[in-house]
Design goal:
Blueprint: H1 2-21, E1 24-28, E2 32-36, E3 39-50, E4 56-68, E5 73-76, E6 78-81, E7 86-89, E8 93-94, E9 99-103, E10 107-108, E11 113-117, E12 120-124, E13 129-133, E14 140-142, E15 154-155, E16 161-163, E17 174-178, E18 184-188, H2 189-193, H3 200-206, E19 212-217, E20 224-230, E21 236-238
Amino acid sequence: MKRFFSIIISLLLCCSFLFTSASAAFENSGDSTSTVYGHTYKYNSSIGKDDSTGVVYGVTNITSTELIPVGYCGICARLYTSTGTLAASTSWHYNNYEVQGVNSGFLYAPSSGTYYSKGQVRFYNGDGYNTYNSKASPNMTQYNSISMSASHLQTNQTGLTYGSALLSETEPDLILAEGISGNIGYVKSSDLNGPMPVTAYNAIQMQPSQSRAIPVYESDGITVIDTFVIDAATPIYSF
């Protein structure tokens, strides 16, 4: 009965997804594959635009050929501008059910500009989680386009790396980001990601159900200049 109920939920969510995205352009980053703790996963990031509204959104996706145990995969969607600035992020979500796939749900661009979708995923390794970056998607423009000039990583006086995470294989300590008041600065990777869970049960208990705000700093990682809001994840499962 529980399995039947799960299948019904999955079908309803899939129908909702298809209806929402029926009139939208959609492009994929291309798959990456990782095998962790005996489970093989494929993951990517996608970017889309609703043709009726012109609004751009990002999605991060995980799939497997077998059922993924509860809490074994985590997912986080992120959108970057064409300057490499973090524009929007979801919180981390871990699968509440045994599923064969999960996507982060839509993460909408906050304003006009050109955006890339590049999320992160986590997989349980038996003693914590391994974190991986997806490939960056092609870009899409919401109204006005801006030129590409993602910055290289630098190191501040306290030894923290700072710059854009869009083109970086290793996430910097301070990630270039735009605050809700429009100020460009940096968010701490530790603030953005939150604490790392140790067990699958711990991951399910820790995931937030509401949006949360974190500081935006100057490159010193001390002076606060704005606030960045992390959206609550609204995932869609496939069983």
